[in-house]
Every structure is written in C-alpha cells, then in structure tokens.
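Record type: monomer structure entry
Structure origin: computed from sequence
Chain ID: A
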Amino acid sequence: MRLLVLDTIHGGRDLAGYLREQGHFVDAVDVYRKGSVVDTETALQREYDLVIAPVHLQPRHPLLRKLTIPVISHHQAVRWILGNNVPSPMVELTGRRGKTTTASALAGLMEGPGILNTSAGMIRYPEKQKIGPGSITPAAIVSAAREARRIGGWLVAEVSLGFIGSGDLGILTSPDDYLVAGNTRSAFQEKVRSGLGMATLLTAPGISIPGAFSCTDIVTVDGDSVSCPDRRDSGCFRNRLLSLDAYRTPLMLAAAAGCLLSWDISRLSSFEAIPGRMSSSWEGDVFMVDNSNSGTNAEGACAAAAYARMTCGDVPLVLVIGKEEGAVCEGFPEADVETAIHEIKPQHAIVVGESYDRIAVPEETTLYRARTLAEALDKARMSASHRCIVLAVKCWR
C-alpha cells in the first residue's frame, strides 16, 4: 500500500519505519515544524491509499481536508503493525492523570520478566533496569511490545490520548477532560471511544461506560486498607499512601486489575511513592514534596502543599511551580498557576518557564523566576533553611 503518515514529532517517524519494514511505500510529513523531506505541498500532489494521522491533529489541516482517502489514527496503525504478535498479559493505560503511578503499581503485581513503559522510561523487570527513554506516544508501544515478547514477558504500558486495543486489559485512569485537535475534539471522549475496542476495560471512580468495570465495584477502601470482597485469599492490603489523593485511585485501579486477573494484590502493601509523584524526603531540616511530572496541575500542587504542611506544621513554605518549556504537549495555564499560588500562599514562589509574565502573587509571597526545574530547585534550597519545599512543575522526569 501507499501510505502517508502525519506528524513525525510524536512517533510518526517510527511508525513510517515499521510500515516500511512490512513492505509498504510510506511518506512521512512533519506537520508542525515542517522539517520533513516530503512537505504538505508535495504530499498533496501524490497518490496514497491511506492516511495515518494523530488524534490531536487539527481536522482543518490541508492533508486531512483535501485528501479524499481513508484516515486512521496512530493508535489504529500500531494495532495493525502489532497484529497478533503481542505479549501476554498486556495492559494499556490512558487518562489525563494517574497513568504512571497506576502502571508502576501494576508492574509490582506482576511475576516473572516483563516491560513497564511509562513517561519515566522503558523498564525491564524483574531487575528494574531502564533500557529506553520515556515515551507514551502510540508508536512507542511497538518497541515495548517487541521487547516484552523477546524476553517472554508481560507488558504494562501508558498510551497518550487513547488505547491501542491490543491489550488484554485497558485502564482509563481519570475522568478529566481537555480539548485537542485545535479545540475541536474531547480528549476524554476519544479515550472512551478507543476503550470500547478493548477486550476488558477498567475505569477510575466517576467514569461510567457501558460494559466496563468500575474499580469501585471491585474493591473497597477503608482508611489505609483496600480489599476485594470476592477474594478471600490475597485479596487485601494496607498502604499508607492511600491517605494521599494522588495515590488512592491508582492503588484502587491496580488492586481492581489484580482482582480481575486473579493476581495477588497483597503485594501492593510494599508499593512506594514514585519520584515526582507526591514523593517526600528530608534534606537535613528541610522537608520536600516532589510532585513535578507530566501531569502536574493546580489541584496536584495544592495537594502537595497540604501534605507538606500536614507533615511540617505551620512553617514557611517554598513553592516551585510552572512548566518547563517544550517539555510536554499539554500546558500548565498561567491562570491555573496563579490560582495555585494564591491558594497555597507560600512565603516564596519560584515560577518556572517563560510563559508566566503576568503572574500576580499574594502580598505575603515573594516571587522569583527560573528557566528550569533544576535551576529553581537550587534557588529553593538556598532559601529554604528549616522550611518546606514543594515542587509542582509540569515536565518529563
């Protein structure tokens, strides 16, 4: 077939390579930076059988608007590329929040060799060795699945903006929504639509999809304890992280998945906080809560500050907040950053990024600026003797 793959930045280049391996003629167009050999004008003059486009591409793009041939998504292309050559079990996770935490908890339930693929990297189990960079584009699932099959193991993988549909189980981790494709398409509805193609679909609290399982129907939470009423053996665990909102739902989802697949969920009692996801540590007399990750938002920043104050009491707090430029596709709007600062009322606020020129802070807060999380953290440490530091910067970790 003659194929046209759009968006080389977000995995399209890799998809084109995989499809060429299968004998197809493939052109790939960089629709954002316009840095590809084949540009939009050239592609419009050629003939193709199929277009492969990301779900986040504006429908008004000339290659979608003018070409009168079938269009499939990157997700669908990956399912086509993989065919029946998928590892087992294979679990796919998508959602605005909680993907990495849920995926990491699930990996802790697995036995034997396997691959965990998240925004934090591709990790080979049981040795927990990082073997590749973090990418959750649909295209990244191909290499993760191939590696899992090579070692004869399982695969737990995050996917951005929907499900591939190749896995035994899909998990929708959050009901939160936002607009993509030039503000024309609901990201949540796209995830729901693709989830209907999963063999089994599990959802977070607050999501109702016909035919799907809700984790609240499978497990119950009581304080720091989770139990699965239908499982008498290995069907419960305790973990102090359940007291944190950022971990309660991921642990519920991991436990519910374990119950559905007859795994021993008692292993979740030893699950620990992930760096950058409400993890905490002491540096001398300074208590630090790190909630800087690709899903950081105002709500998470406020939760991290509340956790810090619950631990430290009423002591001066340094808040590092913002977004590393170019780090992630989804932004951290200036209004949300400002709202978080006003709600937290830190003694010092260090704003990361170049998109926050008009930030206003409370009178009792001193405002500083930094270009990166590392630079901001150095400033926070210099000013934080006997204080709390909260890190809430949207970035890849």
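Annotation 1: The longest strand covers residues 317-323.
Annotation 2: The domain at 279-394 is CATH 3.90.190.20 (Protein-Tyrosine Phosphatase; Chain A).
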